[in-house]
Amino acid sequence: MKLKTLTASTILPVAVISSSTPPAAFPASGNGLWYNTTGDVTGTLWSTTFLPIGNGYLAAMTPGGMEIEALQLNIESLWAGGPFQDPTYNGGNKLPNETTATHLALEGIRASIFANATGETEDVYPLTSPFPFYGSYVGAGYLITTMNVSSPATDFARWLDLDEGVARTTWTQSSSTFIRETFCSHPTEACVQFLNTSSNATLPGVTYAFSVLDSLLPTPPNITCQDSSTLKLRGFASEPGMLYEILAQVQSTGGLVSCNALDSTNATISVTGATETWISWVGGTEYSMDAGDEASNFSFQGPDPHEALVSLLSSADTESYQNVLAEHIADVNDVLYSQFSLSLGQVTDSRPTDEIVTGYEYNVGNPYLEWITFNYGRYMLASSARDTPWGGDYHADINVQMNYWSAEMSNLDVTSSLWNYIEKTWAPRGATTAQLIYNISRGWVTHDEMNIFGHTGMKGGPGEGNTAEWANYPVSAVWLVRMPSSQSDVTECSLHSRWLDLWDHFDYTNDVAWWQAQGYPLLKGVASFHLDTLIPDQHFNDGTLITAPCNSPEQVPITLGCAHTQQLIWQMFNAVEKGFNASGDTDTDFLDGKHRCNFSDSLNHVRDEREQDVSVLEVPFRCWFKEPEVIAKRSQMDKGIRIGWWGQLQEWKVNLDSPTDTHRHLSHLVGLYPGYAIASYDMGIQGGLIYNDTKFNYTKDEVMDAAMTSLIHRGNGTGPDADAGWEKAWRAAAWAQLGNASEFYFELTYTLYENFAPNLFSLYDPFDPVPIFQIDANFGFPAALLNGLLQAPDVASFDIPLVITLLPALPTNWPSGHLKGARTRGGITVDLDWSDGKPETVTLTVDESPISTSRNVQVVYAGKEVGSFTTSPNFATTIQSF
Ligand SMILES: *[C@@H]1O[C@H](CO)[C@@H](O)[C@H](O)[C@H]1NC(C)=O
Ligand SMILES: *[C@@H]1O[C@H](CO)[C@@H](O)[C@H](O)[C@H]1NC(C)=O
Ligand SMILES: *[C@@H]1O[C@H](CO)[C@@H](O)[C@H](O)[C@H]1NC(C)=O
Ligand SMILES: *[C@@H]1O[C@H](CO)[C@@H](O)[C@H](O)[C@H]1NC(C)=O
Ligand SMILES: *[C@@H]1O[C@H](CO)[C@@H](O)[C@H](O)[C@H]1NC(C)=O
Ligand SMILES: *[C@@H]1O[C@H](CO)[C@@H](O)[C@H](O)[C@H]1NC(C)=O
Ligand SMILES: *[C@@H]1O[C@H](CO)[C@@H](O)[C@H](O)[C@H]1NC(C)=O
Ligand SMILES: *[C@@H]1O[C@H](CO)[C@@H](O)[C@H](O)[C@H]1NC(C)=O
Ligand SMILES: *[C@@H]1O[C@H](CO)[C@@H](O)[C@H](O)[C@H]1NC(C)=O
Ligand SMILES: *[C@@H]1O[C@H](CO)[C@@H](O)[C@H](O)[C@H]1NC(C)=O
């Protein structure tokens, strides 16, 4: 396997006699990662060798050092740039005096697309803006723990216990066996590193220091003694920039703790004569997501974090280490395992994890490693997304979305941070962007790349060339209100691929209060905007509504009616309709404008500004709505489902697909997975479109075949453009959706083989000598894996039965196993046992208050219906014959 070179030559430390079997305290379940060598203590290869811990806002990466441990620190809101660096920061938007020119440019771009023979245009440059002070996530430096011992070490092992969410290191040196434990606790909001020996011997002198070595921080922070046992670090993320602070308090059993100021900018804490010592740290910044709106002048300015940190630390202070640890373990168990469990029938492989990874082969597989990688993905999601925003830059054209793909199905309560991030940093300035670029005065819009400072404009401007491939993505929020993402940044907590959906969250959880307060208003904001981006198709003049300019994410041409965009908007409009009743919204005009329009008499409808627009465009429209509402526009829009000349699902409305295009994104297959425009294609609803005198009457089989043809031609996720992990995870999920177990397992194992490092981080380019960690595949993997075991794609309306398919793509390598507590939409919990490659028993339980009662559900295995029921509160059924 390709990472061999990385692991073997670069990482082995000085001579250490190590174990070749897991340490005694390694979880009996096998649920963890372990190594008999330290990570790359120089830090260069942190992305392939360090192990992650986190509590949702603080995180750390540990190499598992011995007498010197250099822990990489992270505070999720620590960003350079934005209004902290430039108070006039405007989210990469146009200036008000550029509005008229921008609107004219947009009209010109649309006109040129319509007039062009192949429906293309060169670029969208006039819509873009420069993005000074876009900023970037910044690491918070290192916590260095040094022990005054120098003799050779033996019996080294380090591991990440995934049952407990604790990283541990043990080794023997100077005749003591040392144990170091590190974790970040959600209950106490602090991280802790604990050190003792197995025999309760007195520890050599221990020193704690902060270092900003090789971090991107501009000026060294001030490090002082807050008191005799507490270090205080204060610095700025950029120059000028956001203030941040870390407070770290040291406690010990026995011995003496003292804080020593070395000079005006540095201090250390020493512990002598103790049998146990531990350091607890809390960190924060002056960033506040609550100040990202007009009322706060988009300042994102919160209070100095100092007081809050002092009070956090003082409450952590009162508890014993053992209590803090026990509370943390209980919390991890509660979040990750109390509701949900998976078995792939795996047998624990006792080799060190790096050796398992190195020996792993695609197709051959190893159910144990696949199971660990699944658990690790959920662990990382829970460690990075607990009720808070996150670090890294957010690409919302697959990455952010993919990151959450597994959350709902595996019953992880981690999504509120994402909704808050969208509500507080996208929506407020996105409303201005809608006006500035698109001349749309309702709803809001964002584009592909986002920071934490409300960057909503289209990235571009002088010197950036044609950035349309990345920038021209006004449906980023559509995907997030039905959403996936990719993250290309080098940060530990980068959220690249969370596919999550406001609507899905509601459909899975029945949380009406949340839907009314947050979910639906966000959805309505995005849907409102897109009601106005849909315009009559003046290229084909086929009477449909399309968007233009559009392009598939990160791919040209720039054209009209792109399948990706059309499918996403159509799915979003369905979500509005399905969720309307529960939303409490009384704006029925928004949902259904039919009553305002007379289809047979175009002179009969209400005259207003919009109508003027239409007549100016001279479109032969049968009807125009006073307010172009959701249901009416949905019926007129191009649904983005079209079969092309080589049998493919067309990526663009114009005929430009190349059979040799192996692009990393499966943008036009968004309706196959994770969406449903393809997977639940319904001829009665999506067919019947009149287009170029052709009635679009594809059957579902034809559409699925076309999607498969596209998927085959798209290649295996290793192409000339990229060899990333997430593209393979997406392909795996798509193959599972097509019910193809062998292709599904190939892609799933191929990404593990090709892209996963010894520490099971997924890498953007596995051949890079210093590879970039791209977290997407870590989150895409569990979602894809689940899609091979259980599927229940969404449907356009509650009148259409929900089809739950059991073991749709079960690989022969997982002949027996179970899923407990898996969730499907409709508020249904699924417990499934299988053996000999077949279901043995499945129990489906409807929640106490599903959003839709009397919804028809069909349970399918191997293409035949094995059960059916109508949802009602607490309904449960068990099926045992297949
Ligand atoms: C780690 O364990 C493997 C056996 O799985 C062994 O081959 C290797 O030598 C061990 N490494 C060290 C540094 O002891
Ligand atoms: C727009 O306003 C900015 C300052 O707000 C100014 O620098 C720029 O020259 C103006 N542009 C035009 C075209 O008037
Ligand atoms: C259509 O637009 C494309 C892209 O800008 C361009 O290469 C092509 O020449 C145009 N076709 C015509 C007929 O103008
Ligand atoms: C380290 O320990 C040795 C004795 O083992 C002692 O002489 C020395 O002063 C210690 N160094 C520090 C920095 O504490
Ligand atoms: C370890 O030693 C300390 C005294 O230094 C004592 O208070 C504690 O109970 C001992 N712990 C164990 C597990 O023996
Ligand atoms: C502070 O001093 C310690 C001990 O010399 C050193 O390891 C650390 O890098 C210093 N930190 C800074 C920020 O200079
Ligand atoms: C660090 O200390 C210097 C000198 O006292 C002060 O000017 C500066 O503002 C301090 N930095 C921070 C982040 O508090
Ligand atoms: C429309 O149909 C005509 C006649 O079948 C065909 O020549 C033309 O290529 C079609 N246009 C498109 C855009 O498919
Ligand atoms: C679709 O329409 C074509 C042409 O009218 C017809 O030949 C074909 O049988 C229809 N297919 C279906 C599935 O209705
Ligand atoms: C994946 O596709 C690439 C490009 O076609 C090819 O070079 C590579 O061998 C394929 N990998 C596997 C494992 O099939």
TrEMBL record:
Q: Does the keyword Coiled coil apply?
A: no
Where the record annotates domain Alpha fucosidase A-like C-terminal, the positions are 804-857
- A GO molecular-function descriptor: alpha-L-fucosidase activity
Q: Residue span of the signal peptide, if any?
A: 1-18
What keyword terms does UniProt attach to this protein? Hydrolase, Signal
What is the name of the protein in this document? Answer: Glycoside hydrolase family 95 protein
Q: Name one Pfam family in it.
A: Glyco_hyd_65N_2
Which residues belong to any copy of the Glycosyl hydrolase family 95 catalytic domain? Answer: 320-787
UniProt GO BP: carbohydrate metabolic process
Name all Glycosyl hydrolase family 95 N-terminal domain ranges.
33-289
